[in-house]
Backbone:
């Protein structure tokens, strides 16, 4: 099988509001897929529908070829999930929470220790109730719950919320490890920098509709580069340029340059361009 | 049913269940403490009971000056009812409705746990609490009677049958809690609905007692199928009453499981 996740003509309504509108998407096995969109775009609804937590009004959402609404629940063993608004059992200790979920998944947890080691999570904290954890510690525990049973598919909704820069780096390394062992990662995030570093392809959704699906490189190529030329007379010239590099270099040469800076198009510019273009 | 989640739920509510267990025990012990030991007190209590006999259906009132009648109070005390009801309800107010409101339900249902098994497990945790607390009055009465020095005069066999009946009543409210929890969006909403149901159950019982000649009203609610005074007097059918309550509990649990599976959102 080459398709890890497939969404076909998915429509989900919350009362009079259409949260997801005729969405079609396919994520390949082994891919890290970035799922982007502004607040209220329908990202979390799509994820909850994928996992069978919401029944769609129309269409299907499948993971590894299986509709989680209809499937035998044991198939969920192959999926790891981190919700966007992570809530844990406040009274339970971290260890009790991990053991409960290990028992619910009914599998060994070969990656649990590795996750905590990466995050430098103090082992003694696992014996304290979760209600005493900081936001970052809770998020780390949530990440461990998603990764600990070494799932084939990881569905991660805003996974780095509340993490400090070091923990964020640890998370990026964890996803890279998962990719290296062939896992598929469906990553919804507002932090475009980390999506840029991880994702093979991205999809942008706004107002429930899919706006674009492509590789970051191709999307970047579709937008102008920001060029800053410092001329020999000391003045700076800033302009946006598209098209072949040879034409751009010819143009710069004619400007009597002393120095040149060509910035890659940041992902947030792509994101804004896609969302605003269609809104307009 | 899922045993790891059952164990987790029981542990989660262990303090509430322990406190609720103590309530009927304390009621039973206090019954022994206040047992009228001299003839004068008994006669006075008998006069008070006669006033209530006129107002209420006579079959509901035993001769309270006897140990059997006096200790029967522990099985009919409102605190005993509430302790049994809430011992069953507390785990179900947390799961699924409370966890739905908090957001913890999503991560539970993203595991290989089906909605039906989740509700069945929460019911089992509630049933554990209800059964435990339903037998607490018997312990309290045993201790109280020993304290009052009338242990040999207390009809423990009748009280055992009453405890079976009380267990079935507890399971009825536990199944009702499961139903309410499945259809509610969060814990407070479930508590409001359950509170309304408990009020209606008690109102039916009171109406059936006060409205003479209309005892059938009591049979509409669950408490009408729990008649400890009749059991102690040797006139009741506690096992049949328990069977009726148990059968309705199973039916309500079945509806709760069906509704859980049919819910649009977890």
Residues:
């Amino acid at each position: 099988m080459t398709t890890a996740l497939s969404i076909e003509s998915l429509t989900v309504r919350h009362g009079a509001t259409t949260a997801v509108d005729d969405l079609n998407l396919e994520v390949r096995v082994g891919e890290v897929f970035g799922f982007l969109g502004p607040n209220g775009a329908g990202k979390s609804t799509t994820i909850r529908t994928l996992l069978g937590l919401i029944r769609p009004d129309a269409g299907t959402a499948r993971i590894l070829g299986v509709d989680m609404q209809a499937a035998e629940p044991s198939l969920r063993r192959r999926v790891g999930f981190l919700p966007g608004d992570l809530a844990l059992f406040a009274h339970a200790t971290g260890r009790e929470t991990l053991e409960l979920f290990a028992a619910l998944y009914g599998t060994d947890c070969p990656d649990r220790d590795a996750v905590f080691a990466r995050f430098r999570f103090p082992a003694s904290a696992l014996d304290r109730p979760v209600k005493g954890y900081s936001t970052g510690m809770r998020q780390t525990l949530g990440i461990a719950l998603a990764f600990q049973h070494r799932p084939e598919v990881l569905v991660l909704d805003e996974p780095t919320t509340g993490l400090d820069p070091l923990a964020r780096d640890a998370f990026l390394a964890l996803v890279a490890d998962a990719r290296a062992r062939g896992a598929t990662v469906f990553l919804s995030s507002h932090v475009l920098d980390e999506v840029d570093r991880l994702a093979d392809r991205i999809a942008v959704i706004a107002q429930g509709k899919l706006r674009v699906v492509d590789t970051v490189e191709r999307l970047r190529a579709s937008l102008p580069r920001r060029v800053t030329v410092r001329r020999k007379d000391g003045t700076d010239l800033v302009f946006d340029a598209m098209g072949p590099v040879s034409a751009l270099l010819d143009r710069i040469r004619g400007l009597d340059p002393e120095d040149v800076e060509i910035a890659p198009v940041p992902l947030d510019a792509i994101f804004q361009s896609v969302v605003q273009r269609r809104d307009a | 049913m899922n045993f790891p989640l059952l164990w987790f739920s029981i542990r989660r509510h262990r303090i509430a269940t322990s406190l609720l267990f103590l309530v009927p025990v304390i009621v039973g012990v206090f019954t022994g403490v206040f047992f009228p030991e001299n003839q004068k007190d008994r006669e006075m209590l008998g006069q008070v009971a006669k006033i209530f006999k006129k107002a209420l259906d006579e079959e509901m009132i035993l001769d309270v000056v006897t140990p059997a009648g006096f200790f029967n109070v522990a099985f009919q005390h409102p605190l005993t009812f509430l302790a049994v009801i809430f011992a069953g309800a507390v785990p179900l107010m947390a799961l699924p409705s409370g966890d739905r409101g908090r957001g913890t339900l999503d991560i539970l249902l993203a595991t290989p746990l089906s909605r039906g098994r989740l509700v069945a497990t929460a019911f089992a945790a509630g049933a554990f609490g209800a059964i435990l607390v339903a037998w607490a009055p018997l312990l309290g009465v045993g201790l109280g009677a020993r304290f009052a020095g009338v242990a040999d005069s207390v009809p423990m066999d009748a009280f055992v049958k009453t405890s079976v009946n009380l267990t079935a009543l507890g399971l009825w409210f536990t199944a009702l809690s499961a139903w309410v929890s499945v259809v509610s969006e969060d814990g407070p909403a479930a508590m409001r609905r359950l509170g309304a149901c408990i009020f209606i159950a008690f109102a039916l019982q009171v109406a059936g007692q006060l409205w003479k000649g209309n005892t059938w009203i009591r049979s509409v609610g669950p408490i009408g199928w729990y008649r400890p005074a009749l059991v102690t007097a040797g006139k009741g059918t506690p096992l049949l009453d328990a069977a009726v309550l148990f059968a309705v509990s199973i039916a309500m649990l079945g509806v709760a499981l069906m509704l859980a599976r049919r819910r649009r959102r977890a």
